[in-house]
Amino acid sequence: MYRDANTSxxxxxxxxxxxxxxxxxxxxVIAALTIxxxxxxxxxxxxxxxxxxxHPDQDRPWGLWINFNVITGVAFAGGAYVLTFxxxxxxxxxxxxxxxxxxxxxxxxxxxxxxALLLDLGRPWKVINPIIGNSFGISSVLFLVAWHFILxxxxxxxxFLPTATEWATLKRYxxxxxxxxxxxxxxxxxLSTLHQSGVGALFLMAEPKIxxxxxxxxxxxxxxxxxxxxxxxxxxxxxSIGRGVFKKEQSxxxxxxxxxxxxxxxxxxxxxxxVYLFMCMLVFIxxxxxxxxxxxxxxxxxxxxLGFVLLPCMLFLxxxxxxxxxxxxxxxxxxVVGIILNRMNISTIAYNWFDHSLHWPSWMELVVSVAVIFxxxxxxxxxxxxxxxxxESPAWVSSDGKLKKSLHTTNKWRNKKWKxxx
Length: 422
Description:
The chain is mainly α. Helix content is 74%, strand content 0%. It contains 14 helices and no strands. Helix 2 packs across helix 13, helix 7 runs antiparallel to helix 8 and helix 9 runs antiparallel to helix 10. The longest helix is centred in the middle third of the chain and has 36 residues. The C terminus is likely disordered.
């Protein structure tokens, strides 16, 4: 019997490893070539040193792999903590159809962006120092961010494990991890809130280097607020793409709820963007940086604030009022561009602005950055096409839930009867 169980498990894995869909597609070909080029570049990076593929200097030590993949990418992973809060804490069941996809994307984002972080470190093996106690650096913001990063990845993994156990029909583990969901969600929300603001806090020590229009002591709060609409905007984009790519994998309830869910997310994005704009206005008035609008920086700042925050905020409101999904998707794309622009302004473009030179990444940095995103999307697609991310959970999951509810009702009735007789 033990041999038969191993044989069936082997056949299951073998069947799941088979491609589900066309192999030679434009996306697959481009992704494969980009990843292959990135592998070659990384070989030179680890064999010849970091300076052979990037050109950082003492004034700008962080390259594209940190400034774009990590600092910018983490903002787009904010959809998970927002949606889990709405579903598991506020009880808004209409968002349950997309919460698993949001958790999966955020989990993969943190995993692959942690890999991108290692690429940009001169001695990547030193990254374990905050964990093993060697040079803890507890007075550093990076120590705080590192532990939040690690713990939140663990929280996202536990949040997603019920989906994986349903796929592998591991009933006992499904009940175990399903029972942990609420506690892990609460823990994860607290971690992500601190982590998003902690990334912004990294730049508090760089006041002399960041242009006054982008620097303020409220950067941590601005990073946290912007992660709300950044994460939800990316969810809107991914759900819109997934509606065409994952037709077979989506349940009928998911497809029916798509329009209503996107409208509601647009409203949340509009509200959070208005709060962000209000905060930016307060920071500007309080800082009295009126003289900072010279030399073109003021115009560039207005492009970011008016063109990629205020305008998409208005488009979100218009799309919500008119029930226009096309306008909402355009607003989501503009919002994503705006977040990229904001994070790159703070970390790269408006960083060391006074030397009148712009730090351009090497083409090899660009290739590796795009390859990391491609790998993330390929893994996301592989999981969605096999696990019940968009599909309904198996029947045995709902039957377990009904059995637990029945037992709970029976026990409650027995307790009442016992109290009455007593």
